[in-house]
């Protein structure tokens, strides 16, 4: 404060009290010496209650070894240190009272730790500045959430909620690359709804949509987390089964067939029975690209159609 008269010192204190950031000055024993209005309002403790108290007793949530190390580095190097909310959401836990961002329980914070040199150039105090960045954090979280939703929508079939053709075909390409590199196996089950045009013509397109959604629900229940289920188009579906051969895929397909046959979709009081025909292919045979697996499964599906529908056929069997 050298060169400043008493009035200037009062001005400085007035500024520290009025700014919308937390200002805390700590001595080398981590005792509080300055505690501004921001800290009073957010903590519920007056300066009288806080001054000369240990920072760690006031805020037991602070990770003491980490904070001490941070402060000692500031003292030793004589340079400021910073924390940001993305790495550490807050230093001290204050409730969030902002109405716009009321969904957040606590105040997100950035902090600065400044070395304060005495007239003899020795750092005897540090100043902790706490910034409320809750709005920034909330906006970033909302943006991330919106991006995640857009990403999900870009790969999802709107009617069924399963993967759309673009996404599951990318997954098939990836699985095929894994097969070429590591010799892993994978199977593809392709199926469609038997006489689906008749369902639409008899009951209407909304009923047809309900049938497609009911089939998608069965697929979701039967598929493993690692399986990639998707809509091929219209009433046709595919399920990619990583690390499964045609025998395992046939069992899976037969289970789907039985579960679907047992379904009866209720539409406007009318029960709509229906069945599916399925084709299975795997990568145990020599193949040129991922498209070949689609072709093989498609051929097997049409074999099921030719043989009377409501059955499973395996390519090459």
From TrEMBL:
GO terms for cellular component: plasma membrane
Cofactor requirements of the protein: Mg(2+)
Swiss-Prot/TrEMBL catalytic activity: 2 GTP = 3',3'-c-di-GMP + 2 diphosphate
Pfam families, A to Z: GGDEF, PAS_4
Biological process, per Gene Ontology: cell adhesion involved in single-species biofilm formation; negative regulation of bacterial-type flagellum-dependent cell motility
Major localization listed first in the record, in broad terms: membrane
Keyword Transferase belongs to the record: yes
Domain of life assignment: Bacteria
Keywords assigned by UniProt, alphabetized: Kinase, Transferase
Signal sequence bounds: none
Domain GGDEF: 184-317
Localisation: Cell inner membrane
Keyword rRNA-binding in record: no
Annotated CDD domains: GGDEF (cd01949), PAS (cd00130)
EC number(s) reported in the record: 2.7.7.65
Root EC class: transferase
Gene3D superfamilies for the chain: 3.30.70.270, PAS domain (3.30.450.20)
GO MF term list: diguanylate cyclase activity; kinase activity
InterPro entries the UniProt entry points to: Diguanylate_Cyclase (IPR050469), GGDEF_dom (IPR000160), Nucleotide_cyclase (IPR029787), PAS (IPR000014), PAS-like_dom_sf (IPR035965), PAS_4 (IPR013656), Rev_trsase/Diguanyl_cyclase (IPR043128)
Protein name: diguanylate cyclase
